[in-house]
Amino acid sequence: ALRIDGAPTRVPVDRLSGLYPAREQRWVFLDCNFPNHRAAALDVLGLAADAGREAVARAVREWDGLALEEAVHAARGCAALVAR
């Protein structure tokens, strides 16, 4: 089982992890399952720690998919542009 600092995780998949449509009709997968990845994605998107999926979806739609992937990586997060 997955453990972080020796403790079991609360849920296997964070509620913010998943596919989101970007500005140019492409999709970006945000992996928010680790706290640092979640924080990086939210920071890049300019959102608070308690943001919900709808807020994340609105913010992602403002980005070019590749630019968002690169920005999240630069912030030490995990994101992937999905080919269509």
Low-confidence stretches: none
Work out the helicity level: 25-40%
Quickly count the helices. 3
The main β sheet shows up as: 3 strands, antiparallel
Report strand order across the widest sheet.
3-4-5
Mean pLDDT: 92
Distance between the termini: 33 Å
DSSP E strands, number: 5
Principal-axis shape equals elongated
Structural class: alpha+beta
Order of secondary-structure elements: EEEEHHHE
Task: Please indicate the percent range of residues in DSSP E strands (runs of 2 or more).
Answer: 15-25%
Task: Give a structural overview.
With 84 residues, the protein is of the alpha+beta class. The chain is 35% helix and 21% strand. Helix 1 packs across helix 3 (65-74). The mean pLDDT is 92.
Lay out the secondary structure.
Elements lengths: L2 E2 L2 E2 L9 E4 L5 E5 L3 H11 L7 H8 L4 H10 L3 E5 L2
Helix pairs in contact: 1-3
Descriptive keywords:
84 residues; single chain; 35% helix; 3 helices; two-stranded antiparallel ribbon; three-stranded antiparallel sheet; alpha+beta
